[in-house]
């Protein structure tokens, strides 16, 4: 009796052990996985019906059935219905809008998906997921037209444009140029109107082409070319021969000052090339990064810039310099600011109100201040001996911001004055000229305002 009891206990134990192991097997087995199939598609889809919608599905055990239906609220049409025996773990397919089937054209539909996988879970029924997306049909291109623009852009200079861009599902509005730069636009005067400043970079070999682009969430695009008269300009080109004395004295000590860790093992010529190429590129990128934004200002009020009292021009904007060493060209650069000199340590003032976005060391530019004046317009002050403002400060017109010096790649006390438009260093001379500012900016703005407000 005792023995029989013992053996049946053992049988029971074995059965329960097997049962537990089986359950553990089922629970952990891939055949019985409990992960729901995943459907990669947005909850709200804006669709222009031109491009097919791409649907991606993934599941650990593959799909048994995939059903996609489109409903207008009354009727429902099957767009995709497939049974799969193969254990495809990933499935990607396109669906197009049915040409026939809906009686009335609506602009909102519901797309529903039902996916069942090959898992043995749920008593061999598999995991099932049901999902819905709202489809908003939008076949309309945005409306885009120019309201007013500057008549011309000079190479290295700037032009303004004010335009209308409208769409119920607007995504992005900007000005695209043929040299890759995208200028941001900001609201102007009323909803649906925008302003942007566009520049034709000094270094560009090609003529400028600028287009206003508006895109909506359904992928419709509208573009309009801005009709600027393009005025080419001959900038000065000069050849500079590097002497050993210059390299061994001036450049060697400059390298020690501004890039010691990176140049200490280099010979004097390599030090020069490092400063004029790599370090210049880095410094220009820093300027680009802090001046990329276009801040909104309700009204623009700018005086011509006059940063240094009685400053004499010692180098112009746009000069192209080629450097030679032993009759061989070793480097080149564009001078993208206006160099002004007065007495050493002279006061530098900001002629306009703005917010300081940079105050510190910037490679070849030395101690530098950059001020945001709104609309993507920034002023830059390089080679300073001391800075009197800090990042984040709001300066008023006429405020002293720094003192001239020769920090960075400079060999005499002077101010490198720059105007930067959304990351691009442009001709400062335009922004120091009252007539240029009136013709190219304020008249364009006033003209647009009267057109928009219907006074004309
Ligand atoms: Zn300069």
Task: Break the fold down into its secondary structure elements and pairings.
Elements: H1 2-28, E1 38-40, E2 44-47, E3 53-58, E4 63-71, E5 76-83, E6 90-95, E7 108-117, E8 128-137, E9 143-149, E10 152-154, E11 158-166, E12 170-177, E13 182-184, E14 186-188, E15 190-199, E16 210-216, E17 221-225, E18 229-231, E19 237-241, H2 244-263, H3 268-290, E20 312-315, E21 320-325, E22 328-334, E23 338-341, E24 347-350, E25 354-361, E26 367-372, E27 377-384, E28 386-387, E29 394-395, E30 399-403, E31 415-421, E32 424-426, H4 434-452
Kindly estimate the percentage of residues that lie in beta strands according to DSSP. Answer: 35-45%
How many H/I helices?
4
Distinct small molecules bound, one entry per kind: zinc ion
Helix content: 10-25%
Write down the Rg: 33 Å
Task: State the low-pLDDT regions, or none.
Answer: none
**CATH architectural grouping of the largest domain:** Distorted Sandwich
Biggest sheet details: 8 strands, antiparallel
Number-wise, the strands total 32
CATH homologous superfamily heading of the largest domain: Glucose Permease (Domain IIA)
- The helix-and-strand class reads alpha+beta
Estimate the mean pLDDT confidence. 90
Number of domains: 3
CATH class of the largest domain: Mainly Beta
CATH topology of the largest domain: Glucose Permease (Domain IIA)
Name the shape in a single word: extended
Gap between N and C termini, in Å? 114 Å
């Amino acid at each position: 009796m005792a023995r029989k009891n013992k053996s049946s206990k053992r049988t029971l134990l074995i059965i329960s052990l097997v049962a537990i192991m089986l359950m553990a097997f089922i629970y952990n087995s891939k055949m019985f996985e409990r992960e729901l199939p995943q459907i990669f598609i947005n909850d709200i889809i804006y669709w222009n019906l031109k491009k097919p919608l791409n649907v991606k599905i993934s599941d650990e055990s593959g799909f048994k059935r995939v059903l996609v239906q489109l409903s207008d609220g009354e009727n429902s049409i099957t767009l995709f219905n497939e049974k799969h025996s193969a254990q495809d773990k990933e499935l990607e397919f396109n669906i197009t809008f049915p040409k026939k089937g809906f009686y009335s054209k609506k602009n909102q539909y519901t797309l529903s998906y039902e996916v069942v996988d090959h898992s043995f879970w749920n008593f061999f029924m598999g995991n099932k997921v049901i999902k819905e997306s709202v489809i908003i049909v939008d076949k309309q291109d945005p409306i885009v037209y120019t309201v007013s623009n500057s008549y011309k852009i000079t190479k290295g200079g700037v032009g303004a444009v004010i335009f209308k861009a409208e769409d119920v599902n607007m995504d992005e509005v900007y000005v695209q140029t043929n040299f890759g730069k995208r200028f941001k636009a900001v609201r102007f005067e009323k909803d649906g109107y925008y302003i942007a400043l566009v520049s034709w970079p000094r270094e560009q070999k090609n003529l400028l082409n600028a287009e206003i682009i508006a895109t909506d969430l359904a992928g419709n695009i509208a573009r309009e070319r801005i009709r600027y008269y393009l005025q080419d300009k001959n900038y000065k080109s000069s050849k500079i021969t590097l002497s050993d004395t210059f390299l061994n004295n001036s450049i060697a000590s400059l390298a020690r000052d501004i890039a010691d860790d990176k140049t200490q093992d280099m010979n004097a010529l390599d030090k020069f090339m490092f400063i004029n190429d790599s370090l210049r590129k880095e410094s220009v990128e820093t300027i680009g990064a802090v001046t990329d934004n276009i801040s909104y200002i309700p009204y623009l009020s700018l005086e011509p810039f006059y940063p240094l009292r009685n400053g004499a021009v010692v180098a112009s904007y746009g000069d192209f310099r080629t450097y030679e060493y032993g009759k061989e060209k070793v480097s080149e650069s564009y001078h993208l600011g206006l160099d002004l000199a007065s007495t050493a340590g002279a006061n530098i003032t900001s002629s306009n109100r703005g917010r300081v976005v940079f105050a510190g060391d910037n490679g070849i530019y030395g101690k530098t201040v950059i001020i945001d004046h709104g609309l993507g317009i920034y002023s830059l002050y390089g080679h300073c001996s001391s800075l009197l403002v800090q990042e984040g400060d709001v300066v008023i017109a006429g405020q002293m911001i720094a003192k001239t010096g020769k920090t960075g790649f400079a060999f005499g006390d002077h101010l490198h004055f720059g105007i930067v438009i959304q990351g691009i260093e442009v001709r400062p001379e335009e922004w120091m000229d009252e007539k240029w500012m009136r013709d190219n900016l304020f008249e364009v703005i006033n003209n647009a305002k009267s057109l928009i407000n219907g006074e004309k």
